[in-house]
Design brief:
- This protein has strands at residues 4-7, 10-13, 18-24, 32-39, 51-53, 60-62, 70-74, 78-83, 92-100, 116-117, 121-126.
- It is mainly beta and 127 residues long.
- Strands 2, 4, 5, 6, 9, 10 and 11 form a seven-stranded mixed sheet that branches.
- The termini are far apart.
Length: 127
Amino acid sequence: QVQLVESGGGLVQTGGSLNLSCTASDGRLSAYAVGWFRQAPGKERERGRVAALAIHGEWTSYRDSVVDRFIISRDNTRVYLRMNDLKSEDTGLYFCAAKRTSLNRSIYRTDADYDYWGPGTQVTVSS
């Protein structure tokens, strides 16, 4: 069982930036497709991704509300979510999820696609 751990959350003012990071216990996150998901305060975790990344790091997908503000990327051991120009509606618990796949360019957009999940990191944007 692969365990994921997120880090980098915190409290930031509107317009600020955060850089979330995700690692895997097997050290092989580069072999998985990865997505970031959000659970807004008082709500269930959203089914659709905030951002997703194929094994091949050039293939990405974003929800409309974060296009041009968030950037998902990866290196050999971590996946990052760079969050710029943060808004109050970005507040929530952010989860990293990973999927085993042999399809290097496939992106997975819904939570049911993923095999492994981290416990989440809290992002709070204050106005």
